[in-house]
Amino acid sequence: xxxAAVRFAGVTKRYGSAEVLRQVDLELAAERTTxxxxxxxxxKSTLLQLINGLVRADAGIVEVLGSDLETVxxxxxxxxxxxxVQGSALFPHLDLTANVTLLARLLGWSAERMATRLGHLLELxxxxxxxxxxxxxxxxxxxxxxxxxxxxxxxEPPLLLLDEPFSAVDPITRVGIHAHFERLAASEPVxxxxxxxxxxxxxxxxxxxxxxxxxxxxxxxxxxxxxxxPADAWIERLFRSQLG
Amino acid sequence: xxxxxxxxALLLSAPALAERAIVVGSKNFTExxxxxxxxxxxxxxxxxxxxxxxxxxxxxICYEALRSGEIDVYVEYTGTIxxxxxxxxVAPERSALVExxxxxxxLPLPELGFDNTYALVLAGDRAQALGVERISDLRGHxxxxxxxxxxxxxxxxxxPGLRERYGLEQEPVGIEHGLAYQAMVRGRIDVTxxxxxxxxxxxxxxxxxxxxxxxxxxxxALPLVRxxxxxxxxxxxxxxxxxxxxxxxRRLNAEVVIGNRSFAAVAADYLAEEGFAASxxxxxxxxxxxxxxxxxxxxxxxxxxxxxxxxxxPLGIVVHRSARASRSVLYAAGLLQTIPSIALLALMIxxxxxxxxxxxxxxxxxxxxxxxxxxxTALGSVDPTLRRIAVGMGLTPWQQVxxxxxxxxxxxxxxxxxxxxxxxxxxxxxxxFVGAGGLGQPIVTGLALNDPNLILQGAIPAALLAIxxxxxxxxxxxxxxxxxxxxxxx
Lengths: 244, 490
Prior knowledge:
The complex is a heterodimer of chains A (244) and B (490).
Chain A (H helix, E strand, L loop, with lengths): L3 E12 L2 E12 L3 E5 L6 H8 L7 E6 L2 E2 L5 H5 L2 E5 L10 H11 L4 H14 L16 H13 L5 E5 L7 H17 L3 E5 L3 H7 L2 E6 L2 E7 H6 L4 H11 L1
Parallel strand pairs in A: 3-8, 3-9, 6-7, 7-8
Antiparallel strand pairs in A: 1-2, 1-4, 4-5, 9-10
Chain B lengths: L1 H16 L4 E6 L2 H16 L4 E7 L2 H10 L4 E5 H9 L7 H10 L2 E3 L9 E6 H7 L16 E2 L1 H5 L4 H8 L6 E2 L2 H9 L5 E5 L3 H6 L1 E3 L12 E6 L4 H8 L7 H12 L5 H11 L12 H34 L3 H16 L2 H12 L3 H25 L3 H9 L4 H31 L12 H10 L2 H29 L10
Parallel strand pairs in B: 1-2, 6-7
Antiparallel strand pairs in B: 3-10, 4-10, 5-8, 5-9
Helix pairs in contact in B: 2-13, 4-5, 14-17, 14-19, 14-21, 15-17, 16-17, 17-19, 18-19, 19-21, 20-21
């Protein structure tokens, strides 16, 4: 019996001779938001990409939504995982609607079902209907970012992976998007894994915190517990410098 | 690729399915055009359906074309048959040629009556003043200035053999054949080589020296056909036996070269003078001819371009992910591009014969590089983050290509296809040399005749076609590509 949406057991990943992740054991609770923080090069992006199979582990087991990644049908699994990255990465040749509904269309969703889901998401993200047929370059940075969250959530995935999705927008816009994200996470039963280098953002948006250091988990647990009891002096210094 | 082969096969069979006309060929010099036209009109006068494939670029091309059935008849010279086709010591007489040609499936029809061999010529007044009438007479004039074309200087049946046979002591220099007559007229040289039926001899009043020791081989003109050539048609062509002597041929050539008349008109006049029935379609209007050439040109370029897209695009998609594979493929395609187009066309002949196929294959090979290069670079420059998203969201490899890579690469790919199209339209004008027709046809003929009007009849439509193609692609870009993704190139 488990409530973990993602489980890493003894996972190691190397790029050439460099070990990026070393013997990682970690469980990410279902229907909660977990933030993975760490310095650049700590392996947090790699950890995220192990979950949707963009990166394959050299050793250990990665279990996602109850399936072992080694044996699962990767294509089917990926369609149950929302994915958004830094800078929105909307497809420039498609308008907002086509971007968000691309996969739903390819999977043969009915027009009605598609319109309902799209309308709901746009409303949740406060994207006005007149934006629906604009191309990405005709949208503001914040609008693009929200549209990319809509795209990630279109198929109602049980799992959402976010790779520093808010880092490319200015601080004021970011505060707004944080609010939108929180509305989204609250309204859908979704497990969120958020990779960020911004500890403040992590603590604000996530319920659980994973701190990576040099490819290993330095500390993991509910945010308040981790903040209350840093595992070592390095983490304590990190909190002091970033959270004040 | 099977589809491509199928399309080619279909396009090739289309003309064959039409009524079986007799295809008359010619080489790309005045006399061959005139004789081709005479044979064609003679057949037409007797009710045969005739197709003209004139201006083929040389003996071997005509020979290949005849054997492969691309053409049914063309006029050849006995000396050329022994020298180039048979490559053996056979006497250049029709009677001696029948047997060896039969082994190749060919049949020489009766000789037309003249011999277009090498000849030595002297300015008319000089010849009279010196009393020189025969080549032997040159022995008495060791100080005469002699200049020969480079080919004549080298050929065994040219100067080396001639000097030996006649015991000549002059030291000739090399000269471009096109310049020799002018040099003669201006008195810079005294003697040069010529073809005995050259229409220009008439114009300049040059004296032809008699080959009194019978050195030069015979180059008697005769129509050459395959052995399966219809008897009735052979009989009609046979009626020309002995009806054109050297004097007559020189005059016919001169009417074209000096009189600026068309081959068709000169041929029609000749047939009328000889009392043969007139061809109902002796005078093809230049308009219908140009239209036919234009259509053939479009056919050539669009088939080649279509095939290049069908191969280049998928190949580009397959190799673009591997830097090494891309490099090798682009290198290979680039290598093809460095082969001069006329050489590439010539290389195609042993593989594909003459006509549409070798031309299409050559144009296809030329079109490949721009399309491949555009595809590979365009796909390679797609933002890796977008690719990662496409994979991560669960698009299949084909869906990634179809919904992300191709749309983003499209502006560049279209630009590549556009470049290929324009290159093809230009290069296709050379296809006339291998009997593929097209707008190169009047250009080739015009070059042979030094007739700028005729050249322009091919060059102007070709240029207009290139411009129209540019406009068409601009329109396509507007239709297919959202404004913000278009290239800033127009």
